[in-house]
Write a structure and sequence with these properties.
Spore Coat Polysaccharide Biosynthesis Protein SpsA, Chain A; 11 helices; binds uridine 5'-triphosphate
Length: 290
């Protein structure tokens, strides 16, 4: 499941009439990287939790026969290759979150679709790893089955002075895969039990739906997914964390600072346009070439 129903207010005015998940990072919109990451690890059914103003996401993943025909007739092979993703063997489903009541509420909208199976939640505004080549979701799914977990969450180490922006784990051990004792939402650096921040990917058991139904609105009047996972842990469910590996950093484009950084990193890594951009940047920064 890919929740994409948030309002993206931190990116106004860019997100006034277009979804933040459709903002380009390098040559592709953010949400395309998310879908490619999931399909690469074998996921074939994707449910988007959408909202008002998000129709361009549906259009992006549709086959556009007319465009393909035009490109074919004019022999634009390279551009045709850029539309290859349309042919991925994925079935797309869409449902609307009718009120923006937070990520927990968005996940709850998928209850009848999910049924009794475990499922993946991948936030539509976060890319994991350059070119989305991460297999963290596969490692998380393996952990889910091997440990009979109720929840598995991806974590990224963040600088200590940034912990107050994230949900932070209280880990049982300091291994790559660790049991989560508790989660603390946006702690001060002094109170933070670690610097392991929730990193936009979850594998969840359907027991989460019961917990979500009982979760009251928390910070900002929203139903927080973290609160529901904490309730699952309190009720005896086991939750595990999987650390992102070096090279798997999370690019969350939810604010301009992070969005600009992600765009520049991906554009610089572009084999065709990266080298010229690098020269322009060095010139703009007045740095002599190494
Ligand atoms: P954010 O926590 O960044 O929230 O969402 P937001 O509302 O989009 O952004 P701001 O705070 O107004 O700037 C993380 C992911 O969860 C989805 C978003 O679309 C994004 O992909 N989300 C968030 C929902 O689907 N529904 C919600 O009610 C909130």
């Amino acid at each position: 499941m890919i929740p994409v129903a948030g309002l993206g207010t931190r990116l106004l005015p860019a997100t006034k009439s277009q979804p933040k998940e459709m903002l380009p990072v390098g040559r592709k919109p953010v949400v395309q990287y998310v879908v490619e990451e999931l399909t690469r690890v074998g996921i074939t059914r994707v449910l988007f939790i959408t909202g008002p103003g998000k129709a361009s996401i549906e259009n992006h993943f549709d086959l556009n026969a007319e465009l393909i025909q035009t490109l074919r007739e004019s022999g634009k092979e390279e551009l045709l290759a850029a539309l290859e993703y349309e042919r991925a063997t994925v079935q797309y489903f869409y449902t609307r979150q009718r009120q923006s009541l937070g990520l927990g509420h968005a996940v709850a909208c998928a209850r009848s679709f999910v049924g009794h199976q475990p499922f993946v939640v991948a936030l539509g505004d976060s890319i994991i790893g350059m070119h989305a080549e991460s297999d963290v979701v596969q490692r998380m799914t393996r952990c889910y089955h091997e440990r009979e977990a109720a929840a598995v969450i991806a974590f990224e180490e963040v600088p200590h002075d940034e912990v107050s922006q994230y949900g932070i784990a209280r880990p049982k051990t300091d291994e790559e895969l660790f049991e989560i004792v508790d989660l603390v939402e946006k702690p001060s650096p002094r109170e933070a039990p670690s610097n392991l921040a929730i990193a936009a990917r979850y594998v969840l058991s359907p027991v989460i739906f019961k917990a979500l139904a009982q979760t009251r609105r928390g910070k900002g009047g929203e139903i927080q997914l973290t609160d529901a996972i904490r309730a699952v842990i309190r009720n005896g469910g086991r939750a595990y964390g999987v650390r992102l590996r070096p090279g798997e950093r999370r690019y969350d484009i939810g604010n301009f600072d992070a969005y600009f950084e992600a765009f520049v990193a991906f554009a610089l890594a572009d084999p065709k346009f990266g080298p010229a951009l690098r020269r322009h940047l060095l010139e703009a920064l007045d740095v002599s070439h190494p």
